[in-house]
Fold each of these.
Amino acid sequence: MNNFVSLFNDIYNKFMENFHDNEKSKKENSITSSEENYLDIIYSLKKTTLTKFAELAKITKPAATQIINKYIDKGYVTKSISEKDKRVCYIEVTEQVKKYFADSCKTLNKMYNDCLSFLTEEEMIQLSNILLKINENL
């Protein structure tokens, strides 16, 4: 079992290294991995509050405020006040970040397809079944 875990980690690390190399070559001022992690949380929540972001990011509200203010300055997120409750602020990613994630998704899909292109149809079916079984048990 340790060999499997080691192999899985090795494949994952190579895949992510290739992905990040690919992304950096396309963008001079690309978003860092740590920024991408936090932006992904905001992106997945669509329009969220600072409290919800801090909770999901597992950081304090003051730390979340610092991160969000930095992202506002960089043009990564916008902040808007709720019309219903003026005490509540919503944050969401900008169109620039939405495009970044869409481009990254295209790159990942191409890489997945390239990685799997050497498998036979039968192997693809087997791999798909195995991944579905793993996914169901996570």
Amino acid sequence: MPKAFLLINIRPGSEDDVLGNLEGIGEVKEVKRVYGVYDMVVKLEADSMERLKEVMNRRIKRIGNITSLTTLVVVSE
């Protein structure tokens, strides 16, 4: 099962809006608000790599108030 971690920066004051949008996506398994270089770390799991890419490109990258996003695709566990 393909997995990825997303490192997200968010426009200040918009964290709750972004969190609400992420929680509505079935492939989002965990969301952690963090301090440091990034504002959130998101764990995604999908049935296929194609579905993982689709969720990232068509759902998550279109969420408003995300200012940057770094994707880390898991290659082995």
